[in-house]
Design goal:
Layout lengths: L38 H4 L7 H5 L14 H14 L3 H11 L1 H11 L27
Length: 135
Amino acid sequence: MIEKELIAPCGMNCGICKYHYRKKDTCPGCRGPDDNKSRYCIECIIVNCEEIKNNSSGFCYECSKIPCKRLKNLDKRYRAKYHMSMLENLGFIKENGIESFLEKEKQKWKCPECGGIVTCHGGICLSCGFVKFKN
């Protein structure tokens, strides 16, 4: 289930991250507690950005520096490897709201075979193993 608490400040949908669904040490997402997050995620410049912590939406689209170098690099990598764009996600959220974004994401990452969730990291359905795309 993709929920708004799983949408990171950068626009990443943590609800399609394979680490959110692993059986041991499940990651709670960027907005969750640090207990089972990787060091990379805990030390993320974007999650720890003071400007994001102080804006009303909690998203990078309100930042005066958008897109910062970190966000541009992250977006470039995810476009090339994982079939998604943080910058497009942020633009959609800003224009259409978080609820519309969640609905769009549910459809985009829904397995065409069983209706389960396909992760962006691997492009494989977690329920039936259907390969939607290869990285």
